[in-house]
Amino acid sequence: MMRQFELVERVKSYDPTADEDAINRAYVYAMKMHGSQLRASGDPYFSHPIEVAGILTKYRLDSSSIITALLHDTIEDTPATQAEIERLFGVEIGRLVDGVTKLNRIELQSDHAKQAENLRKLVLAMSEDIRVLLVKLADRVHNMRTLNYIKNPEKRRRIALETMEIYAPLAERIGMQELKMELEDLAFSELHADARGSIVQRLSFLREQGGDLIGRILEELRKTFADAGVKAAVSGREKTPYSIWLKMRKMNVGFEQLSDIMAFRIVVDSIEDCYRALGVIHSRYPMVPNRFKDYISTPKPNGYRSLHTGVFGPERHRIEVQIRTQEMHEVAELGVAAHWNYKQGGGKITDGRQYRWMRELLDILEHASNPEEFLEHTKLEMFQDQVFCFTPKGDLISLPRGACPVDFAYAVHSVVGDTCVGAKINGRIMPLRTQLGNGDQVDIITSKAQTPNPTWERFVVTGKARARIRRYIRTQQRAQYTDLGRAILVRGFRHEGYDFAEKALDGVLRIFKAATVDDLLALVGEGTLTAREVISTVFPELKARSQIDNVVALKARHAKPADRKDRANAVPIKGLIPGMAMHFAACCHPLPGDRIVGIVATGKGVTIHTIDCENLEQFSDQPERWLDLSWDDSDGNIHLGRIDLVVSNEPGALGAVSTVIAKNVGNITNLKITNRNQDFFEMLIDIEVRDVRHLTNIIAALRAMPAINSVERARN
Ligand code: MN
Question: pTM score, two decimals?
Answer without folding.
Answer: 0.54
